Structures are given as structure tokens and as C-alpha cells.
Amino acid sequence: MVAHINAKERKTSKKRKKSPSLSDLEKTLDKVFSQYVRQKDCDAGGTVECVTCNQLFYWKETDCGHFIKRQYRSVRWDERNVGVQCTRCNHYMGGRQDDFSRYIIKTYGYSAYDELMRLKYQTMKFSRLEILEKIDEYKEKLERLNERRD
User: Fold this and answer.
1) 116 neighbors 72 (Cβ within 8 angstroms)
2) What are the residue boundaries of the structural domains of the chain, listed by start?
3) How far is CA 28 from CA 49, 55, 101, 105, 132, in A?
4) pLDDT: is 19 or 76 the higher one?
5) Angstrom distance (rounded) from CA 39 to CA 84
6) Whether 67 contacts 83, CB under 8 Å
7) Strand, coil or helix: 120
8) Contact 67/82 with Cβ under 8 angstroms?
């Protein structure tokens, strides 16, 4: 006699864990990277300065602003291309690109600015492994930041 398993039982008994999509991994990296960028320069109380208007905010109330927009993957997760921005500067004032460029030149130098502008037009596709490695890298950096503050 053959035991029959209905379709519902078969589906639930053989469910395989689906690995996250590349898009899901990029969202995770965006989140961890943003947390790192917004926390790395904050003080012990969590206060950080907007790189474009110089006003002070609690780090959770800020954005990880990109000088060269996120659509350019070659610089999307380049730390030289990002800075803490308040929502007003980042969303409502178009990122205040002129002030952001001054911040990049002042912080990293004109050569870094030139390199970012050059990298902007390079096509870049990250593999799953590269994205997973970046996620791990920024999780570790966040842990080190939090250890220093404790």
C-alpha cells in the first residue's frame, strides 16, 4: 500500500530556505552603510552635523546623503561620496550639491573629488559575494563604533 501525501503536506515538508535576492541584499547593505555613515562622526550623545547646512541633529533624524546619486553603483557605497545630511538638505533642497562638493574637497581633497567624478561613469556590477562582504564589513565597523562608545 502506497501512502499518499496531499499537495499541501508535500509543500510544507520540503520547503527550502530561499536565499535573498540581489535587490534584498542591496537594501540590507544600504541600511547598514547608512547607519555607519550617520554614526561614525556623531558624539557620545548621538549628535551629528549636517555636512551641507552645519546644523546639529540626532543621528537617527538624518539621512546618508550621496554627492553622486545612488543610481551610479560604482560610487554608491564609496565612503568619500556620502555624508550626513538633514532631510531638508537631502530631499527638499536636492542634496545641496554645491555645498556637498565643497565638503568633499575640504574633507578628502580635490583628487578624491576628481576620482569620484571619473568613477561615476564606470559601469559596475557587484556580485552577491561582494555585497555580502560589504554587509559584513559595515556590520563590523558599526560594532567597533558601538564598542568604543560603551
Assistant:
1) no
2) 36-123
3) 25, 28, 27, 29, 9
4) 76
5) 9
6) yes
7) coil
8) yes
Tell me how far apart the alpha carbons of residues 65 and 60 are, in angstroms, rounded to a whole number: 13
Q: Residue type at 92?
A: Y
Which cell numbers in the block locate residue 131?
555585497
DSSP category for residue 86: E
Query: Residue for cell digits 562582504?
Result: 133
Q: Which of 146, 128, 114 is nearest to 25 (CA)?
A: 128
The proportion of the chain whose per-residue pLDDT surpasses 90, expressed as a percent, equals 79
The C-alpha atoms of residue 114 and residue 109 are separated, in whole angstroms, by 9
Q: How many residues does the chain have?
A: 150
pLDDT in tens, 3-31: 555 555 555 556 677 888 989 999 999 99
Task: Determine the pLDDT at residue 11.
Answer: 56
Grid cell in block for residue 100: 556637498
- Count of CB atoms situated within 10 Å of the CB of 21: 10
Residue 114 has pLDDT above 90, yes or no: yes
Position 121: which residue type? Answer: Y
Name beta bridge partners: 56: 49
Q: Which of 31, 50, 135 is nearest to 100 (CA)?
A: 50
